[in-house]
Amino acid sequence: MRAKLTDTLLLSLAKPGAWREVSDTHTPGLLAKISKSGTVILTVRARTRDGKRTSVKLGRWPTVGLAAARKTARTRLGEIAHGGDPVAAQHAARAERTARQALPTVALALERWRAARTAPGAKPRPWSPRYTAEVERLCVKFIEPTLGRRLLADATRADWTGMIAAERSRRPATATWLYQLASAFLAHAEAHGWIASHPLPRRGLAVIAPKASPRGRALADTELVRVWHAADALPAKPHVFTHLLITTGCRVSEAAGIAAGEIDFATGRWTIPAERAKNRTAITLPLPEGLANELRALLPVNPAPGYRLLGSIAGSGLSGVSSIKRRLDAASGVTGWVMHDLRRTARTGMTRLGIIAEHAEAALNHVSGRSQLNRTYNVHDYAPEVLAALGAWQTHVLALVGPDIAGTEPLSAAIVPPRAAAQ
After folding, report:
1. CA–CA separation, 292 vs 268, rounded Å?
2. What is the mean pLDDT of each run of 10 residues along the chain (423 residues)?
3. Which CATH superfamily is domain 2-101 in?
4. Is the pTM of this model over 0.85?
5. From CA 239, how far away is CA 417, in angstroms rounded?
6. Beta-carbon neighbour count of residue 292 at 10 Å?
7. Could you tell me if 41 and 57 are in contact, meaning their C-beta atoms sit under 8 angstroms apart?
8. Rounded to the nearest 10 degrees, how much is the dihedral formed by the CA atoms of 120, 123, 129, 135?
């Protein structure tokens, strides 16, 4: 049926009955489709340049009035005359919306990345628990609040660099960490097709978040004594934690997570397992007798091997290190240092005691200073040298602080080789 479409005509046709179509004689290509239920749908029908028939729905009458429908129809017909295909464009837009709904947000992509890098068999190797926890902390604290809800594909270079720059103004070292973490994550995302290209500049670290100058703080003997005695005013677990850092030169996370099954009380030795060591290499350290006794006093009856000794919650690792540090500062009067400086102090002290560098580095479980060739052909584990070097350091520390801790001699002293004693 062909007729000039008017509201009166459509009102008369918009009744339940047979399905019908009315082509508008006023605007060729515009037609009204009346369903059996009496619903009127205004539509534009035409053929594209390649001869394909296309039909564009304009909306339901009277919600869409005839004047507006004619205006829109002329626009659509013009687009088709110039080679366009509104229906194909609508399908493409719908497909794009569907595809975008499947794209991950930054938060979801970060979660997938962490899962992939901690899975058994991850290449080049799975992250250590310590590194995993640090990555999660940075993601949750810094990235997810800023960019977490954004689609990963929509996060621009300005978004990433802006987040890092904001942190650089407050904590430069954290900004460096953030840049390195974000760059590694985005490289993973690019490799797996989550994003088209890596948005951060490949060599932008030096400009956007340059590494801070390495710390060089080592406590003098007098400062070490004051920190040692300041720990005496702390509760038992923070007290043991501080003395453990001073006497063994271990990492903060290693001391915080010390577990019952890692300590051999018969020999006074503590073995940090490979999965808790930063370089995935186990190491056995000597414990001063008094410190071993204090650790033994923290044991419950029949603890499981994985029972951690120093946490405020039974069986958990120690937390709140920054609070412990503030209390040590207040009690000792020593400032301008961080807990990791106790590790540097032990290494510096071993050099002052004449321990050769190779043995002192082994005592800190450092392997990065050894060449790949050396690590390939020299498979000696330096276990005796580690015990000797730390035994000499502990003897020095205990002599400085006096007999305030039960036992003033490391249990490993008896096995110190003559050459180390002579040094």
Report:
1. 6
2. 90 87 91 92 87 86 93 88 77 70 88 93 84 91 94 93 89 90 95 92 84 82 96 95 97 95 96 88 94 95 94 92 95 94 96 95 79 56 91 96 53 34 33
3. Integrase, DNA-binding domain (3.30.160.390)
4. no
5. 31
6. 23
7. yes
8. -130
